[in-house]
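Q: What does the assembled structure look like for these inputs?
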Amino acid sequence: MGRRTESVIMAMDPKTREEVYGQVGDMLAPGQTMASIGDDITSVILTKKPPRGWYIGLGISGLLMGVLMLSVGYLLMKGVGIWGINVPVGWGFAIINFVWWIGIGHAGTLISAVLFLFRQDWRTSINRFAEAMTLFAVSAAGLFPLLHTGRPWLAYWMFPYPNTLGMLPQFRSPLIWDVFAVSTYATVSAIFWYLGMIPDLATMRDKTKVGIQKIIYGMAAMGWRGSALHWHRYEVAYLLFAGLATPLVISVHSIVALDFAVSVIPGWHTTIFPPYFVAGAVFSGFAMVLTLVIPVRKMYKLEHLITLRHIDNMSKIMLATGLMVFYGYLNEVFFGWYSAHEYEMFMIWNRMTGPYAWSFWMLIFCNGIVPQLLWFKRIRRNTIAIFIISIVINIGMWLERFVIVVTSLHRDFLPSSWDMYAPTVWDWGMYLGSIGFFFFAMFLFLRWVPMIAIFEVREAHHKQEHKH
Amino acid sequence: MPSLRPEDMNITRDDLMNGHRPGQRATILAPRGDDPVQQQQNEVFDAELNRRLDIGEVREKLAGKEGPAFWQSMEELSEHPDFTELMEREFPRMAPRFSEVDRRGFLKLMGASMAMAGLTACTKQPTERIVPYVRAPEEFIPSKSTFFATSMTLGGYAMGLLAESHMGRPTKIEGNELHPASLGSSDAFAQAAILGLYDPDRSKKVLQQGVPSTWAMFRNAMVAQLQMELNTQGAGLRIVTEPVTSPSIAAWIHRVMERFPRAKWVPYDAIGRDHAKAGAQAAFGEHVDTIYHFDRADVVVALDVDFLGEGPAHVRYARDFSARRNMAEDGVQMNRLYAVECVPSMTGATADHAIPMRASDIEKFARAIARYLGIDAPGTDLDASRAMHAKLIADDLKKAGSKAAIVVGERQPAAVHALAHALHDVLGAAGDAVTYIDPVEVDAPERQSSLKELAEDMEAGRVRAIAFLDVNPAYNAPADLNFASLMEQVPFKAHLGLYNDETAQLCHWHVPMTHFLEGWGDARAFDGTLSIIQPLIEPLYDCHTVHEVLAATLGDEEQSAYDLVKSYWQENGLADEKAWRRVLHDGVWEGSAFPAKDLRAKTRIDASHTQESGLELVFSADTATWDGRFANNAWLQEMPRALSKLTWDNVVMMAPSTAEQLNVAKGDVVTLTVEDRTVNGPVWVMPGHAPDSVSVQLGYGRTAVGAVGNGIGFNAYALRSSSAPWIQPRAQIALAGERYPLATTQRHHQMDGIKDRNLVRIASLDYFLKNPAFAHKKSHDPKEDQTMFPLYDYSQGYQWGMTINLNTCIGCNACLVACQAENNIPVVGKNEVANGREMHWIRIDRYYSGDLDKPDTHMQPVTCMHCEKAPCEPVCPVAATVHSADGLNQMVYNRCIGTRYCSNNCPYKVRRFNFLQYTDETTPQLKLLRNPNVTVRTRGVMEKCTYCVQRISKKRIAAERDHRTLQDGEVQTACQQACPTRAIVFGDINNPDSEVTRMKAHPLNYALLGELNVRPRTTYLAKVKNTHPAWAGEPKA
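A:
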């Protein structure tokens, strides 16, 4: 799609435009050519000036990054006592945020690896984007377990490395499983993302006219020439990585779930946690992809590449995983009652009626009721509605972790130890700061890396045109 | 006595004297966000500017100048090295101008500054030894501690203690088994005294009107002043002291009185025993002391008194009393305790029947009981339910006969005390459950005057010289005396005290007093037993004893505090050096207790005037700061009060029903008005408090005690009047419209969630006798072998375990403070307590059951249970908490990275985390305080009870060296050793004969949260209540 097609589409009034794309129902809007796809995606980086929204977004997220730096600096100076945690609530925002960010990361891997293995070609328009999101979300998540320790400068003791103490980590601890699960996940995600980008980096190298960019993209492209042998090796490697990454989608959040499930605390000690955490992770991940993709496609005018079909498909996945998560909530309540165990029963009762009942009921509203709107096609294809729903789900998934971490801990076995947890300004600083970090990285990604996999879209375009 | 100077401990006396106010202490108290570092710098800076100049030196300088000399300030003129330094720091570029000197000038200046450096030091510079001891002092072995007997006094009465000394510095206090008031146990005050010794805010120098001076100058001034007083035979001289039981101080006072026959001695204690004395006077016509023998008492009635928690013999009484409640021992016949009280106390919590009653109604109730027992005690009738209770109590007392004891609190008027004496007489208890002895307090009626008379004399201008020895009436005198303003009229005032306190600041002279661990003295226990107060360390500062000041009054040749005490005893029965040493070693003079007297009490007791109805205001001594003297002791401030679990504040306590009537809630600030004096304080709604009664605790609102105690709480003395020191019937209360944050360590007080959690298991005595194993019917403890995995073999070697007897625990907090002292546990301050971050390794959970107005109160000490299958261990990612072969759940501080996962996974929530840097690592005094055998923890590290592993190791190593196994009872944990009631038993559960094994085999033994299958090594002995069968509303089993 060159300037001509674009101008034609833009000339339509919004409603018609929506209708045209909606009726087509294809992955790509009509009128694309191989060249126009490449031009559209690379021009964002090479020729067009970034849209105004990009500057504003980068500015705000940069400010929040500053908040993160300040919060971390003060934390290192003073200790975790600057947060609202106490005994009995030894984990607060830090762990909630960790689980939340890890969960968000899941959509990227699911889209790029699982959907790839299932030959879901519609993923091509969004996989690069979603993978980048995964990477930044995992980085944001990784901040928290490190900084939430009392002595972060010794956190490397959680890694098995040869040392004069003759000490290995304590492998029975789920936190050690976390270290392995998250670090493996981060590594595989990063490599997978980079691998998938190599042909496009070569395209960038070839298209750019700026010397320094040529050098950087050239080095990053690692000598990609697009020969048949290259393509062959690439396809095999990509398939292998997709195979490797797929089990990680399941393992990472299962293991994060075990942080809780392995303990003896009512509200944590639950066997349903691993599957329900994975479903929740995919749920929140897709919500975050939608939250990002809807404004971006608008901002960069990429509606013809990321179409309503994509949004519709992602909404369906959200609906499915949302139902699984809701089933998990109901299950917890049922087994709390069915256990006939004083502490389990009290835990459920306290969640529903205790001082943090607002969080539980908001959670049910956000994650249980609001996603039911996704049954309707009209809503699935209404970008504004989906954008709002995705944000509601993001909030709901954060609340889910809040409910699990805080309400379970704040009233456990001995009433004498019961207490309340209230976040301090530094808790918020770390949380908002991590959001800033995530978006800052996303904005840089949008500016310097092809946000849509050019060659994959071309391939999809080819298939769409030739119906094979 | 070990003689060690602080210099020998790498801490110079200068460090202690100037002791920079450390940043950390400021952090503790300052709200979050304050910058302690800045504060510290300011203070250092101010200190420099405030350093005093020697004017004479400056004059000399000026005289030496030739021609017109220009000078900007006297500091500059003196060319004080400090000034040069300050100048250099302030104006770095100017600095060279001040030091532009030639070679000769430089040499001169160097000589001069060295000489002047000598001048600036008013204390001796530390001796630096470069060779080790050629002959080491005896028993002076690094890492080995030695114990010395000494005594601590409170209100004049002694409690015998053993102080542990590490390389010459006292670090821990224990009870003295030979001493009748201790029997090896101690209380929170005694445990916290060690922090009192090292309190960096203690007064350090003799002050003349706030300006540092010297002891010699004080002596001269005193002698000169008293020379003038001789003309009038000392008519203008007054000596104010605490009540005195010390024979040597009494002798000195006597000598002063002989020299100044018209002088007066004013023994004064804000808490005091005036009503008890007047009661004895009324009943017997003479002043006698009552001694209770609770080990013989079957029925005890406590009338408005916390005899288990307060008073000169409370530790001993708690032991005797609880010996009759330890149902895990064979052949114990359980006693029954009725507590009629206005303010809930430990005694009420322990009682089988606690009856909340307005303090002014208690006399009426006591009279009714007395009438049932045939005493002529006219009074109005009670309402039906009270009359029934009075009748039941009277019948029970009658049944107990000579095995009955009636204890009356100081708050009650003399008539109630007299009634108790009459009751003892009628029941035949005198001589059995109760004995009488001559007063332990020294009395000199003809030479004595009361504080009120003193105030009158001061007002009339009859007082010309006054000495306050270890008293602080400017703070704690009844407000209607206006004592502080009357003091202005006295031309010469001297004060001796631990702190430069409210009284000291109004005096011309202030002399720092020795702590009891620094200075010689003597005192008697509640039963007259004499102890010598033996110091363990040379005074840290320029401190002096009461003896020294009294001796100075006479202007005699100066003698050391030791000679002053010893010389007295050489003339009074301990002339033999061996006998003297024996008394020092044992901490008691055997056989010095007073013999019991045979007395008959009057049985006609006239009623005192009490108010019949309306809201009353009641005063009580605070269980942490007492009369205010411990206000600067952070351990006590942070000690959760036994019943309220409140820290760092005093409050206006009232019953829930009264709060409803007044429409106030916890934390609301109310204004209390007595006559024209008002005080604002926060409300605390206290279940079990008497209705229509409001109580406040004395000992807060101090203004001149130190950084910890200044300005916290409100000063209830301002409401006290000399005519109504304890019960103020004419008080008004009004909402002030503000809220005040209060910090408690326990916010939930019910044991129930949805069902009963059976945390404290309890039955009535009857039910227990029929179902001895009742405690086990309430739990579903898993069987030992229900596991897929082989269990660790704990059948070999020592296996440590503990039992805590809930029936004898009175919740007194001695264990808590003992643990804090033993294990270097930091104080976190009010804000951090409010944040839920207190660090105590042992806590005493307090639960209520039953009626809100008349609840049953249950105490349950909780500490690390050392679970065999500890949930904390498998979740630690770095193996920082692990299990030892002898069954200890260990915490490896160095390995801990602070994930707090262990704390989250602990069902008992006994783990404590250093969320911030809580330990003060900079104040030199506090370095001396610490137990060298326990690691000091930094921020980011988890900690918890270790079963005092350092004590286990010490004894085990000693036993191994002797090729023997440890005997039962050889290892005592700090909490166990301090416990007055022996509720905590610790030992080897592999030893079939050990006490702990015996306790664990008892049917009352149960595991808290045993159903979780964590297999705790600490278990509890269930509670049994000996309720009266006919009492309405007895607790169900």
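Confidence is low (pLDDT under 50) at residues 1-6, 21-25 of chain A.
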